[in-house]
Amino acid sequence: MDRTQLIETAQAIVADGKGILAADESTPTIGKRFASIGTESSEDKRAEYRGLLFTTEGMEEFISGVIMFDETLRQSTLNEGVPFSKLLTEKGVLPGIKVDSGAKPLAGHEGEKVTEGLDGLRERLEEYYELGARFAKWRAVITIGDGIPSRACLEVNAHALARYAALCQEAGLVPIVEPEVLMDGNHSLDTCFGETEETLSIVFHELFKQGVMLEGMILKPNMVISALDCPEQASVEEVAEATVECFLRVVPSAVPGICFLSGGQSELAATQHLNAMNAMNDALPWKLSFSYGRALQAAALNAWGGKSENIPEAQKAFYHRAQCNGAAALGQYSNEMENQV
Questions:
Q1: Which of 65, 240, 306, 335 has a CA 20 to 30 Å removed from the CA of 151?
Q2: Among residues 206, 220, 267, 287, which one is catalytic?
């Protein structure tokens, strides 16, 4: 493990005003995205779409890293044949890779899941490093419901996250640790606060036990937020205040950065929440940034519509959302920016 390299990579991921593009949708998931715009999900179409994002001029001003799916890391631009990992690296953007194999039902615990993918992970990480990846991602999903999450669910997912993180650092890859407390349901902001606090507390306990170097990792959590079906939706300021308060309780200061997932938030809400956190706090122990998928891609996907002639418009839409979130990572976003496409 090269401690210096891991620390430098982690700090580069959360450089001022920059965040992560999560373009790691699995083949079935990207198929659903394409179906929503009436486009067939062929390998060439997937490469065209990912390529339009990665070749957007100036995206590197706001995007520090890109999480890719296995297929994408092995793909190249359709016209020039430049491997995506090389293209990104030459732009100063770190290539990343999703390495878990998905959340599966947790035996003996109805309604809960555990993320799998540890078998053979050491060898896969070595290959991914050779293919150009410099960081990786593993997602655990925590559901709030009647009597859940159980302690067993929290502990088994935290243990898997910690084992994955240790293997990543051994291979020279910065681990993105993603414990996501889902927005699904009707629970309140306060309930989300309590479950997120407990989840993160257990995760960091496991990371410590597995010997993970906190200075060489990035946390990718949910925000503390009202559930999608909660009758009382918290304001932007309430979400920002609750999230920061929760994380100050349980996230060690050694962690260089927190790159929030957008979850079920709209692209506008995800930007507003991140900005509010950074605007009201200028002395936090870690950087607060983004690792967004749909919140960065939705407008671009719709503008593209599966048609090559629409690539310039799609790139404008992607650049704009990246620019807005880059500003939010500095606490400098304003609603007026939404009209400056």
A1: 240
A2: 220
CB 226 within 8 A of CB 177: no
Residue 178 falls in the annotated catalytic set: yes
Q: What is the DSSP letter of 119?
A: T
Q: Which two tokens stand for residue 157?
A: 């997912």
Instruction: Check: CB of residue 24 under 8 Å from CB of residue 67.
Output: yes
Please say whether the dihedral angle defined by the alpha carbons of residues 5, 6, 8 and 12, taken in this order, is positive or negative. Answer: positive
Domains detected in the chain: 3-339 (3.20.20.70)
Per-residue model confidence as pLDDT tens digits over 184-200 = 999 999 999 999 999 99
Q: Do the Cβ atoms of 113 and 104 come closer than 8 Å?
A: yes
Catalytic residue among 25, 112, 178, 241: 178
Measured over the CA atoms of residue 299, residue 305, residue 307 and residue 309, the dihedral's sign is negative
The H or E element spanning position 257 is strand 257-260
The candidate with the shortest Cα–Cα distance to 196, out of 231, 228, 154, 235, is: 154
Neighbouring CB atoms inside 10 A of 336's CB total 7
Question: Is residue 238 a contact partner of residue 226, using CB atoms and an 8 Å limit?
Answer: no
Residues found in the chain: 341
User: Which residues, in sequence order, are bridge partners of residue 259?
Assistant: 289
Query: pLDDT tens digits, residue range 41-69?
Result: 999 999 999 999 999 999 999 999 999 99
Q: Which residues contact 32 (CB under 8 A, 6 or more apart)?
A: none
d(CA 78, CA 72): 12
149 preceded by a cis bond (ω within 30 of 0): yes
Q: What's the pLDDT at 281? A: 75
Q: Where are the alpha helices (DSSP H) in 36-150?
A: 43-54, 70-73, 84-90, 121-130
CA-CA distance, 218 to 215, in Å (whole number)? 8
Average pLDDT, the chain: 96
Alpha helices in 111-235, H assignment, sequence order: 121-130, 151-170, 189-209
Alpha carbon distance 19, 33 (integer Å): 22
